[in-house]
Specification:
Alpha-Beta Plaits, 4-stranded antiparallel β-sheet, alpha+beta
Length: about 425
């Protein structure tokens, strides 16, 4: 049903309309929304202001994974995620690598991109000459906007004209390269691009014979030169697991990674496991997990075939396991200074810089990947996952405390399944 002026209604009026239109004024539906309101009205008002048309809060579990040794410094990692077994897997992997040197990380660069997309119906040579003459003027037009960013060590690193006419007739870009220091920098980048585009348009009207038309100006969430590397290694002998010798384990581990490197169907699931860890920390620290996801997956397909973000090999009886991915995040700006749990997360992580946080996030992703591959080449992914999922199944069945105890004991040495649990509890 169409509604006019919805955004101007109070929260209570929005809920009234929603319940009348879709829930037949069901009081239970109203209670579902209201039970997630915070008792502290000021805190609730803060959360209501994060987005538009807010009705209530949507809770996700906030957990921690301890024992992460990253560049010889120990961390307890905050993770926000709804999927069972992810935090347990990350914690187990972190503990495994704790006495083996931990995770070694480095940031290769922090360059971010933004573009003015435009068309020019004229000679390319004329446009190239125009850009050379006016490059400095375009930069000068945004000098004032860069002042605070430059104080923090950031700003525009370079701008270039890019000819894209072989892809679309008359299509060109001016590509801006940025360093945004500890900020993710989306608002800064977009503001700079909009101001620079206005300058470009005015200069073109004065100096070019052909028509230059601005199509759009926007940052890119693809940052192939804002990357982080993380790695672990240990002697093959230290990898003996159950009936698998260390040598056999290491060989299967490398084979599992190689399959993800050559088979896109496996690579997508493989990288999803990495992002289980990455996204959980990105959300906990108030960063944009959609941008991080899109960036990582674009990078995984940069050579024409989607492939694994991680790599493994054996050299001189040592297993080397590593991950490299683009990661554009920040520790200032956005909701980092106003969301109470985001501030808590950053304090828990010992107030990291953006460089530090990139390395922490990447280490969590590699830990998650290690845990997943370890399960796949040994007991299978479902054994551990379904054990952790048992609690969700018990909640779904409204199990009593006695039934919970019965189920936990029963599945100690058995595979968990919904059917088996229903049979055990005598549910139809």
């Amino acid at each position: 049903m169409q509604v006019n002026g919805f955004s101007k209604l109070s929260k209570e009026a929005k809920i009234d309309w929603l319940l009348q239109t879709y829930f037949n004024n069901d009081s239970h539906a109203r209670r579902i929304l209201e039970q997630y309101w915070h008792n502290d009205e000021a805190l609730q008002e803060l959360h209501d202001g994060f987005i538009e048309n807010t009705l209530t809060n949507f809770y996700l579990p906030y957990a921690v994974a301890p024992n992460f040794l990253i560049n010889d410094k120990t961390y307890t990692i905050p993770m926000v995620i709804e999927e069972s077994s992810v935090v347990a897997a990350a914690s187990k992997a972190a503990k495994f690598w704790l006495d083996k040197g931990g995770f070694k990380t480095e940031v290769t660069d922090t360059e971010k991109l933004g573009h003015i997309h435009f068309t020019y119906a004229g000679k390319t040579s004329e446009l190239i000459d125009f850009f050379r003459r006016n490059r400095l003027k375009i930069l000068q037009s945004v000098a004032g906007m860069q002042a605070n960013m430059k104080k923090r060590g950031g700003g525009i690193k370079d701008i270039n004209l890019i000819d894209k006419t072989t892809a679309i007739p008359d299509y060109y870009q001016i590509e801006f390269k940025f360093d945004t220091a500890d900020a993710m920098g989306a608002n800064f980048i977009n503001s700079v691009l909009e101001e620079a585009a206005e300058t470009l348009k005015n200069l073109a009207q004065e100096q070019l014979s052909g028509k230059l038309d601005i199509v759009m100006r926007i940052l890119s969430n693809y940052t192939p030169d804002c990357r982080v590397k993380v790695s672990v290694n240990c002697p093959v002998d230290a990898l003996q697991t159950g009936s698998l010798s260390g040598e056999a384990y290491a060989k299967k581990f490398v084979q599992a990674i190689q399959i993800a490197e050559v088979e896109p169907c496996r690579a997508v699931t493989h990288n999803k496991g990495i992002m289980n860890g990455v996204d959980a920390v990105v959300i906990a620290t108030g960063n944009d997990f959609r941008a991080v996801e899109a960036n990582a997956h674009a990078y995984a397909g940069r050579n024409g075939q989607y492939t694994s973000l991680s790599h493994a090999e054996i050299r001189e009886d040592i297993l080397y396991f590593s991950l490299e991915m683009p990661l554009a995040i920040g520790t200032v700006g956005g909701i980092t200074a106003i969301h109470p749990l985001v501030k808590f997360s950053l304090q828990l992580l010992q107030n990291p810089s953006a460089h530090d946080l990139m390395q922490i996030i990447a280490a969590t992703g590699l830990a998650q990947n290690f845990a997943a591959i370890n399960s796949l080449i040994t007991d299978g992914i479902q054994k551990g996952h379904m054990k952790m999922h048992l609690n969700n199944l018990l909640n779904f069945l409204n199990a009593t405390p006695d039934e919970r105890l019965k189920a936990e004991r029963y599945f100690t040495d058995k595979k968990v399944s919904f059917k088996a649990l229903k049979d055990l509890l005598g549910r139809v």
